[in-house]
Amino acid sequence: MDFSPSSKGQEVLTKLKSFMREEVFPVEDQYFKDLKAQANPWVVLPIIDELKAKAKAQGLWNLFLPKSDYGAGISNADYALMAEEMGRSFMAPELFNCNAPDTGNMEVLVHYGSDEQKKEWLLPLLDGKIRSAFCMTEPGVASSDATNMEATATIEGDEVVLNGRKWWSTGIGHPDCKVLIFMGLTNPDGPKHAKHSMVLVPKDTPGVKVERMLPVFGELDEPYGHGEVSFTNVRLPKTAIIAGPGRGFEIAQGRLGPGRVHHCMRAIGAAERALDLMIKRATSREAFGKPIVNLGGNRDIIANARISIEQARLLTLKTAWLLDTKGVMGAMSEVSQIKVVVPNMLQTIVDQAIQMHGGAGVSEDFPLTSMFAYARCLRLADGPDEVHRGLVAKLELLKHK
Amino acid sequence: MDFSPSSKGQEVLTKLKSFMREEVFPVEDQYFKDLKAQANPWVVLPIIDELKAKAKAQGLWNLFLPKSDYGAGISNADYALMAEEMGRSFMAPELFNCNAPDTGNMEVLVHYGSDEQKKEWLLPLLDGKIRSAFCMTEPGVASSDATNMEATATIEGDEVVLNGRKWWSTGIGHPDCKVLIFMGLTNPDGPKHAKHSMVLVPKDTPGVKVERMLPVFGELDEPYGHGEVSFTNVRLPKTAIIAGPGRGFEIAQGRLGPGRVHHCMRAIGAAERALDLMIKRATSREAFGKPIVNLGGNRDIIANARISIEQARLLTLKTAWLLDTKGVMGAMSEVSQIKVVVPNMLQTIVDQAIQMHGGAGVSEDFPLTSMFAYARCLRLADGPDEVHRGLVAKLELLKHK
Amino acid sequence: MDFSPSSKGQEVLTKLKSFMREEVFPVEDQYFKDLKAQANPWVVLPIIDELKAKAKAQGLWNLFLPKSDYGAGISNADYALMAEEMGRSFMAPELFNCNAPDTGNMEVLVHYGSDEQKKEWLLPLLDGKIRSAFCMTEPGVASSDATNMEATATIEGDEVVLNGRKWWSTGIGHPDCKVLIFMGLTNPDGPKHAKHSMVLVPKDTPGVKVERMLPVFGELDEPYGHGEVSFTNVRLPKTAIIAGPGRGFEIAQGRLGPGRVHHCMRAIGAAERALDLMIKRATSREAFGKPIVNLGGNRDIIANARISIEQARLLTLKTAWLLDTKGVMGAMSEVSQIKVVVPNMLQTIVDQAIQMHGGAGVSEDFPLTSMFAYARCLRLADGPDEVHRGLVAKLELLKHK
Amino acid sequence: MDFSPSSKGQEVLTKLKSFMREEVFPVEDQYFKDLKAQANPWVVLPIIDELKAKAKAQGLWNLFLPKSDYGAGISNADYALMAEEMGRSFMAPELFNCNAPDTGNMEVLVHYGSDEQKKEWLLPLLDGKIRSAFCMTEPGVASSDATNMEATATIEGDEVVLNGRKWWSTGIGHPDCKVLIFMGLTNPDGPKHAKHSMVLVPKDTPGVKVERMLPVFGELDEPYGHGEVSFTNVRLPKTAIIAGPGRGFEIAQGRLGPGRVHHCMRAIGAAERALDLMIKRATSREAFGKPIVNLGGNRDIIANARISIEQARLLTLKTAWLLDTKGVMGAMSEVSQIKVVVPNMLQTIVDQAIQMHGGAGVSEDFPLTSMFAYARCLRLADGPDEVHRGLVAKLELLKHK
Fold first, then answer.
1. Chain C interface, Cβ < 8 Å to B
2. What stretches of A102-202 show up as alpha helix (H) in DSSP?
3. Which fold has domain A131-246?
4. Using CB atoms within 10 A as the burial measure, which of B102, B107, C307, D24 is most buried?
């Protein structure tokens, strides 16, 4: 159980931190202001392309792909600390081609894609030329139970025909989003985990319609966004199915382990940022003749934040280390553990940071409400807290059988 | 300690509930959709004027003014239950001319306004013809300590000259907002609670500039809104000062007691609505073969919500009863107690309702994120939790002296 | 919903408070020291008999029996405030013949006892000459589900024969304990709520054996105590059955409503005492150059304690008022609500009071650990938190059907 | 940051686990029953001496002393996992000569003792022939602020004279307790951290009097116990002072780092035991037709317990690793972090385990109330939560200076 970064990991991390310090933090405020000032904010501003090019040139690119011919060959444990660093700014992940859901989609293609699928979609994704979305959650049913899925991917001869309605398809609003991964029911009468298929859908295929973009606590998260998408008789060749019909669940399972570590480490980075902001505000403003930090229980809040961040980080690093050393099956409980504990930790700390900022905290002058929305969504996305607690308990009870 | 409504209170409450059921709930969804669809949503849609007229015709008007020549003459205890009812819909309070900050501003004018001030501003406010804003909080200092206030209201001959910057001036975006109550420093060397004045400022006075509208968790709350406002050498006759120079704190003190009861009762109404939505969703969706309500700790969440709402309501009713029978000074601890407990209760229940809704909970398909934003702001507005806890503790310790 | 005491209630309450102040508080420390110093602490010290006589002489006797020919004829709402007062000292309830489980047992006899049963057991209980126990919970099964009960009360001719093992039979260690109420299975195949009988068992009946006294957090609660009792072929005439065979559940149901209000109000009295002790300690000791009360979040703790006590009291008073005005069936949700909220509130406040006392808090120099044990047991006794939350949720869901 | 045990550590840990499984767990129930059945339970039962001899013979002895000529030479990181294992049974630590406060006292002597002091006290302690106590906390002042200490250790010629009153002197009731370490004021006018001395006091020195043994939640923790001790003109040669006059604080500081890790790891062992008991009970009892574990939020409780134990362990292991690699000064924040988080975690889990046991949970049939008392005391001993949170916050704020 060694959580220290490898020497390669340490080297890349140092370079990444310096990139964040020199290239990202100084421009992010202006970037978000510029973006909001656009009549149409669903665009890629030039600064993004510039920074992507710089990051790529420095080798800070595709860091999330461990031991792969395609990526940077960095272990989950090493990447975890990088994801934390990227999590400090909402602007950062894409700059390193490390943003969800593209990371998960690329992993799926690396592991399950055909040569043709790789050539058509994986290479441009790895290159940062196009973006993608993942269409799994549905508005009509409780998606916490994946077996509720109603969308269909029916085989008709050499074609697969998609029908259904998805939502919370993150990234679908991005102007470069060219491909969706759609999951649907192919063999309704097959065994429980062999009923569904994953299909690669070019976004401009007839029958695909983005019905609306969904706000999260009032924010649309431009230029990525979260879409509600209808699929009406969308016809594609069977070769669009990833790994063949009926393997959707298997792929989904493998996709989510590392993705959850990434989300959690980014959330830890966000929590560090929130604590940082909290301390800056609490030490720079006065009330009742004292810096706010010296009033009431404020120091306790800071101490508790530090303690809960430390604990969350260690558990997430252990999970990354387990993924590296024992694989997804050897990290099942831990993946669910961090998925419960980290977003809740972030939500709590951000809530307290908001309180310590007074009215400014709920405005857009600080990134706190965005962090709050991120935390709040993470408690639902990739499985709600309840499902993950259930899995942790189930595995715990198995030890006693 | 009798919390039952009086017979008059009961009668009005019954009428109000029926108005809500027949006129408000059926149209509110469409109203908010129509409003959001406007190119410029800072407008009063016709349905609002229609419903205001109906409500007025039924005597459901200015219900918040107890024992007054101007209002409906309803006690705080009776009004509390009405405020709860109105709190179930964000659309409702204005329909009965009972929305903040106009209610507080009207109360100030009833109690402290000169005849001239009453004629010019109170009567049209009571009539629902104009709206108002209250300019107290400042961006540059911790406003939780009111003595931090930096804006000035300097007497120069027969004039008072206003300078400073305010924010969270709620309602200032409303097209009918015609008058602001501004609070500023008049006698910097006077005794601690006689330094400030409150001044009535027509919104179109030269030197008054709404610099921007502030989003709360991404929502601008059109058509009311929360503004950041600069006052630059705003000159007004001394007669614009309410109750004379140096009485700002005294007025503010009296303004806040009933206002906090109103806020809290509306929050209780919102909590009932959130619980209602939670139960509807939890009983109508299934996962893992059961209605969601029967999974894990969900019934516990519902039970705890019911218990905390009941407790919060009783404490708020007691506070209203104390205001009626012992006045603001006799309800000081209780006013602060509810100000702490009710918004936190609402925040918790809404957070849980969001969780039970899944992704839909963070979208705009349900009023949950708006309720969340309301709860979150209430924990800061009219004094943050910390200040109110401090006051409750101080009064508690005094009993032991 | 009028929670003010009636004029008679106010008069008795005033007398009771003065009795507590003059007769109880000054001697309680010494009483418990004397009791602990006994070789055999399962005794009634003379001071108890003395104070009982004084209380009786003042009419402060059997205050818990509302509208009865037997008791003081005080409503639940009026008695609630008296129970709170008694709850401030563990020594108090018996002095007024108002201690559990005798109160509940007397109520059962008033409502369901035959003339003979009343004469034999009720009158001496009302007189304070004997004490009683209630034998319901069983060690071998989860007693949170009352239908799990395994003990039997089998009818054989004119006799009823008892077999089984009970525990947490409170009061059975008292030297004056002469009678037990035993609940057991009579018609195993009868309808779900008509299977059990309640039987009056003289403690010295052959076959009744107190196996051991159970400590609660290390305390035996002398001279009352909580016993584990075996019943082996205990034979009694059928006339010992209360209200006839098969009515056990019906009686249990009615017994518990007022009893839970009593428990909760005593717990509120204990919470007030704990808050009082907390403030005394926090204002009288210094650390780091300040009274402890001014350190960190301590004032917040005091404020939160005050707020949660106020809320718990109001909800309990409402429940008492409902019992008076709508009966047990009209107060079902509220009885369960207070049973959840009040013991948890007490446990939290006592835990914080302990923390503020430092090491002294966990010792016997203060009544805090006894209060903690009381709170902790109350979360299990008369139905655990979980069962009560379940009932509250169930009744809440019924409103939506 | 490598938390895996070293190969030597792993070897000893395996041996220890097997000792616990084969020698300790099978006898502990009987041991505590036998002890409680003693007329005088302040004794060492033969089983203890037997098991000590066995453990010593297997090299499972003095495992807590890292890199020392005197102990087992095991790092803090390695020992941490052994302490966890010992923490599963209250009977265990002494068997391996690893129980507080002897461990801390031995460490003090190893690092600061003179040759003579080592010969007289350290060797028999290392040998397990005698036991010791540590006399620091005082009843008369808030000992959370160590500068409040009032006891004196006055130099008079070649002697040091002790006066004062101490309490919570753990272990002083043990029949083998032969020596106390007393801390008192020597130079009242010296610099803040050079005022106090630590003095070795044979327990039978004239003037030393154990006034009473203090119960903790009703338990006296025989045969160790916690004493209140008066020191009246206790005269000793100056050579009894450890490391010379005025070095008391310096010694205390160094003593506490590893000691806190030991306490926390034992608490984690206790938490694992509590979770184990909770699951056994919840899966073996039924209510409402289901195993208790499947009712309401019980699985959530189990999941949360697992998650909080994992997090607490990782943070404690990191702290041990920091102590090994960076020394006490490099682990200051982390030592305080675990001191806050671990006892609270244990208290919460034990409270929930009690609830899941029903009445049995508060009795002595399970070790749960003892674990609760351990957790509760740990939140006060070696610095209360508040002081440790204060230190964590202070160090956090320093990063921002």
1. 1-4, 275-276, 279-280, 283, 293, 299-300, 302-304, 306-307, 310-312, 314-315, 318, 333-334, 337, 340-341, 386, 388-390, 392-394, 396-397, 400
2. 102-112, 115-117, 123-126
3. Butyryl-CoA Dehydrogenase, subunit A; domain 2 (2.40.110)
4. B102
Q: Can B131-243 and B249-398 be said to share one CATH topology?
A: no
Q: What is the mean pLDDT of chain B?
A: 96
Question: Which burial class, exposed, middle or buried, applies to C72 when counting CB atoms under 10 A from its CB (0-12, 13-18, 19+)?
Answer: buried
CA dist., res. C351 & res. C371, Å (int): 10
The stretch A8-33 carries a mean pLDDT of 97
Count the neighbouring beta carbons within 10 Å of the beta carbon of residue D191: 9
User: Strands D131-135, C208-213: parallel, antiparallel or unpaired by DSSP?
Assistant: unpaired
> Do the Cβ atoms of D400 and A3 come within 8 Å?
no
For residue A377, which residues of chain B lie inside 8 Å, CB to CB?
A: 359, 362
From CA D353, how far away is CA D270, in angstroms rounded?
12
Q: Do D287 and C148 touch (CB under 8 A)?
A: yes
Containing B181, the helix (H) or strand (E) segment is strand B177-185
- The structural architecture, per CATH, of the domain A249-399 is Up-down Bundle (1.20)
Asked if the Cβ–Cβ distance from D300 to B299 is below 8 Å, we say no
Distance from CA of C295 to the nearest CA of D (A): 9
Chain D interface, best mutation among A279, A311, A322, A394, by max D CB count within 10 A: A311
CATH no. of B131-243: 2.40.110.10
> Domain C7-126: which topology?
Butyryl-Coa Dehydrogenase, subunit A; domain 1 (1.10.540)
- A311/D307 CB distance under 8 A: no
Q: How many CA atoms lie within 13 A of B371 on its CB side?
A: 34
In Å, how far is D300's CA from the nearest CA of chain B? Answer: 7
Domain boundaries along the sequence of chain B:
7-126, 131-243, 249-398
C-alpha distance from B392 to closest chain C C-alpha (Å):
5
Fold of C131-245: Butyryl-CoA Dehydrogenase, subunit A; domain 2 (2.40.110)
What are the chain D neighbours of A386 within 8 Å (beta carbons)?
A: 300
Residues of chain C contacting B340 with CB distance shorter than 8 Å: 303-304, 307
B-chain CB neighbours of C333 within 8 Å are 306
Residue D66 pLDDT level (bands cut at 50, 70, 90): confident
| Residues A187/A207, Cβ–Cβ less than 8 Å | no
User: Are B218 and A364 an interchain contact pair (Cβ–Cβ within 8 Å)?
Assistant: yes
φ/ψ of A2, rounded to 5, equals: -105, 115
Tracing tokens 């659309």 back to the chain, one arrives at B91
Whether the complex's predicted ipTM is more than 0.90 is answered with yes
Q: What was the pLDDT predicted at C116?
A: 98
The structure's pTM equals: 0.97
Q: Name which CATH class applies to D7-127.
A: mainly alpha
CATH number, domain D131-244: 2.40.110.10
Q: Do C392 and B303 touch (CB under 8 A)?
A: yes
From A2, A300, A392, residue closest to D303, measured CB to CB: A392
| Closest to A3 in 3D by CA, of A325, A251, A338, A230 | A325
**Pairing state of beta strands B196-202 and B177-185?**
antiparallel
Report helix angle C102-112 to C248-284, nearest 10: 150
Q: How far does Cα A191 stand from its chain's mean position?
A: 30
The residue type found at A29 is D
For B249-398, which CATH class? Answer: mainly alpha
Q: Which pLDDT value is given to residue C53? A: 98
Are the C-beta atoms of residues B168 and B139 closer than 8 Å to each other?
no
B161 CB neighbour count, 10 Å cutoff: 19
> D181: number of CA atoms within 13 Å, CB side?
29
Residue B308, token pair as written in the block: 């905390």
Residue-wise pLDDT for D298-331, tens only, equals 999 999 999 999 999 999 999 999 999 999 999 9
